[in-house]
Design brief:
Blueprint (H helix, E strand, L loop, with lengths): L1 E5 L2 H7 L6 H17 L3 E7 L4 E2 L7 E2 L6 H12 L3 E8 L21 E4 L5 E2 L2 E2 L49 E4 L1 H20 L2 E6 L2 H17 L12 E5 L6 E2 L20 E4 L4 H8 L4 E8 L2 H15 L3 E6 L6 E6 L2 E6 L11 H20 L2
Parallel strand pairs: 1-13, 2-5, 2-11, 5-10, 7-8, 11-14, 14-15
Antiparallel strand pairs: 3-4, 6-9, 12-13, 15-16, 16-17
Helix pairs in contact: 2-5, 3-8
This protein binds ligand PAZ.
């Protein structure tokens, strides 16, 4: 692979088509920011997860990176839990989400935490073998699995329907079954569910998915501008009360729209040589033009410890924002370094593997909130 042109941010947006629903999404962001700033909250934009680089317009193949979105999703929970911030969560589609992340993907298989309890108190699969109801009359082991989008009109359950206890009762549509959370899992799930419901009812989390690096940059620019320009009822801009927490792992290279193959790249001509251009560095423009003095935190990931701090420092000097948080691939869950103009500060937590261990994002967000507070008081907002 060889690298090629250096695009300016302006060239990039002139050449790369915007996401289809950009305007609608940005209008919704505007309403979200306005409402929250009028309710006295600060607003943080969190970017989370990796970006893809498609190789074809009709995309069959793409380049990706490792990020699962753990840092972004965990951080969102801590900002929200503080009660002081509303969160715009710009995330890679299907990456980890605040709250649901505790039970999604492979971390905590949700279905294994639940029991099906029948009307007579028996637990399906425990003592009460599901096999005693099988096979179904048509020979299948279980009926078609209903889609969550269109629930079936009659419940396709694989056991004998129980009659209602008395004739006045409404039809027993769930066959007298309950789903029960296994006792050790109840307390954490309840606490999580309550937190999630509080956040939903207050309307303080607004999520937007992206997939490609191009979509990511369009949204980043649009949301930053909206945050930068939004004013409260007193006519005061969000300004320094806005924070930008850029934890997404963004590709450094991409294939411009005009150079991309229309259809699936065909084999048969020997090796494939891909030429990629450099993704523009938009942080400087974000500082100078979009964010209106918002507090900007970028992340720097490296694998070679000897270059982590020098690279973070170079970024800070080049773009002129407030903080670079440096982390190494292997240790990113246990230690990070805050690099600011006047020095470096390491945050560390003990290594842990258990489910009850503390996450480093708790300390990262606590410290950032202090630094943000100092930044807003300097600006007098
Ligand atoms: O998403 P994740 O929790 O698996 O990883 C987080 C991270 C390492 C992507 C993030 O902390 C980070 O460093 N983002 C910036 C990466 C970069 O240098 O482009």
């Amino acid at each position: 692979m060889s690298t090629h042109t250096q695009f300016s941010a302006e060239d990039f947006f002139a050449q790369q088509p915007p996401p289809k629903d950009l305007d609608k999404r940005l209008e919704a962001v505007q309403r979200f920011v306005e409402r929250n700033v009028n309710e006295g909250r600060r607003v943080v934009l969190i970017t989370s997860g990796g970006t893809t680089v498609p190789l074809e317009h009709n995309v069959v193949r793409f380049l990706d990176n490792f990020s699962a979105g753990t840092r972004g999703a965990a951080s969102a929970e801590h900002f929200l839990g503080s009660g002081r911030y509303a969160v715009i969560f710009l995330h890679r589609q299907h990456s980890l989400q605040p709250f649901s992340r505790h039970y999604s993907h492979s971390t905590n298989p949700f279905l294994d935490l639940l029991d099906v309890v029948e009307a007579d108190g028996g637990v399906l699969g425990k003592g009460k073998a599901p096999a005693e109801h099988l096979p179904l009359p048509d020979g299948h082991l279980f009926p078609p699995i209903p889609s969550m989008q269109s629930p079936p009109s009659s419940p396709p359950l694989a056991y004998t329907p129980l009659p209602p206890l008395n004739a006045d009762e409404p039809p027993n549509t769930d066959h007298g079954l309950t789903i029960q959370i296994r006792p050790p899992h109840l307390a954490p799930m309840l606490s999580l569910l309550r937190s999630y419901k509080v956040v939903k009812s207050l309307g303080i989390l607004h999520s937007i998915p992206y997939t490609t690096v191009s979509e990511y940059l369009w949204y980043l620019r649009g949301i930053s501008r909206v945050m930068g320009q939004t004013k409260d009822r007193q006519g005061q801009a969000l300004g320094r009360r806005g924070m930008y927490y850029l934890a997404a792992a963004v590709s450094d290279f991409f294939i411009p729209y005009t150079k991309m193959s229309e259809h699936k790249i065909q084999s048969g001509k020997g090796s494939l040589v891909i030429e990629m251009d450099q993704v523009p560095k938009v942080l400087k423009t974000m500082v100078d033009e979009w964010s209106n003095e918002g507090f900007i935190v970028s992340f720097k990931l490296e694998t070679d410890p000897s270059i982590l701090i020098p690279k973070a420092r170079t970024a800070l000097e080049r773009y002129g924002h407030q903080i670079v948080i440096g982390n190494l691939l292997d240790t990113r869950k246990h230690e990070v370094v805050f690099v600011q103009k006047d020095g470096e500060e390491w945050l560390r937590i003990p290594h842990h593997d258990g489910p009850d261990g503390k996450e480093i994002e708790e300390d990262i967000i606590a410290r950032l909130m202090e630094l943000h507070e100092a930044w807003t008081s300097k600006g007098g907002v």
